[in-house]
Specification:
It contains eleven helices and seven strands. It has about 325 residues and is α/β, with parallel strands linked by helices. A seven-stranded mixed sheet has the order 3-2-1-4-5-7-6. α8 (about 195-205) links the parallel β1 (about 185-190) and β2. α5 (about 115-120) crosses α7. The radius of gyration is 22 Å and the shape is elongated.
């Protein structure tokens, strides 16, 4: 899969644009000053549940703080004080986020389903298509704490797609669409770092299996599952063309492979469908490939920019 790793803040893009336009320190300091003043007037950002507002404030602050050098001769002592206050406030907000992540991990370890995750599954009105990332990716990264491998093969091989994370909003949308029960087992075909199986186990009563050929990804996923006490999530080092798919009732693919490899996996799924009804969920270009299979019927229109759910026709 291309299952999901951490994401860069949108402030990184803003910072790059400002660098290219040679933003001056004075302008940036005035922006920092306005942010500091807004924080003083509205300390509600320290409320752990004001997550979206806090991320937005941090994004904007990161964009300008990275452009400043408080030691420049043009920066007054007062302005340097504003810069230091902004850094202090930033640390406070990051600490609130860390406490929230720790509290959510504590709930998960005890077998509870975090209300915040349940809310994100039900809040299904603004699922923006495509590959952009948002605050939900930071939340998931903070809770799962998956370790990115330090080294990977230079090339994944013919007809295999480079690892790429699935935006978290699509993963929550997936769980909204399929409504998994204890009778279900979701198998992620090409599970990468394991976001889909881990979130499936956290947010539903279903079992989950991640099949991934890269051992370093599987090792990271297993560590996260063990740390969070997620016994219903399993991760296997296998080629999906050879792995055991017999337990699966729901399958997920984020276009992890193309060409003959994808064709072989689709054929395996077709054979699985002869013994039972299955659902196949896709994200990315493979949605178009599965839409051409006569034994599958999409719920709605097959769309590479959103999660598409396919049912078997027989």
């Amino acid at each position: 899969m291309n299952g999901g790793a951490g994401c860069a803040r949108i402030g990184d893009t803003t910072r790059a644009l400002w660098k290219s336009s040679r933003c001056r320190s004075l302008f940036c300091l005035r922006d920092v000053e306005s942010l500091v003043a807004a924080f003083r007037e509205s300390p509600i950002l320290l409320d752990p549940l004001r997550l979206l507002e806090r991320y937005a404030w941090l994004d904007r602050l990161d964009a300008v703080l990275g452009m400043l050098d408080p030691t420049e001769a043009s920066v007054s002592a007062a302005d340097a004080g504003v810069w230091r206050e902004a850094q202090t406030m930033r640390a406070q907000l990051e600490a609130v986020n860390e406490r929230l992540y720790a509290a959510l991990r504590g709930e998960i370890r005890q077998g509870s389903r975090p209300a915040l995750f349940a809310q994100l599954i039900e809040d299904d009105s603004d699922v923006v298509g495509g590959l952009s990332f948002d605050y939900r990716d930071e939340l998931v990264a903070g809770v799962l704490q998956l370790e990115e491998p330090s080294s990977l093969p230079a090339h994944p091989g013919p007809e295999v797609v480079f690892y790429q994370p699935t935006p978290a909003r699509h993963l929550f949308h997936l769980l909204h669409l399929v409504r998994l029960s204890a009778a279900d087992t979701l198998i992620d075909l090409g599970s990468g770092l394991g976001h889909v199986p881990l979130l499936t186990t956290i947010c539903s009563d279903a079992n989950s299996i991640g099949i991934e050929r890269e051992e370093v990804y599987v090792a990271s996923a297993r560590r996260s599952a063990q740390e969070l006490n997620l016994e219903r999530a399993r991760f296997l080092v296998q080629d999906v063309r050879e792995g055991d798919l017999s337990a699966g009732t729901v399958f997920y693919l984020y276009t992890p492979f193309t060409g003959s490899v994808l064709a072989a996996v689709v054929e395996r799924l077709r054979r699985e469908s002869r013994s039972r009804s299955i659902r196949i969920c896709t994200f990315g270009p493979c949605a178009g490939t599965l839409a051409q299979e006569g034994w599958l019927e999409p719920v709605g229109r097959a769309d590479s920019e959103h999660i598409t759910v396919f049912h078997t026709r027989f």
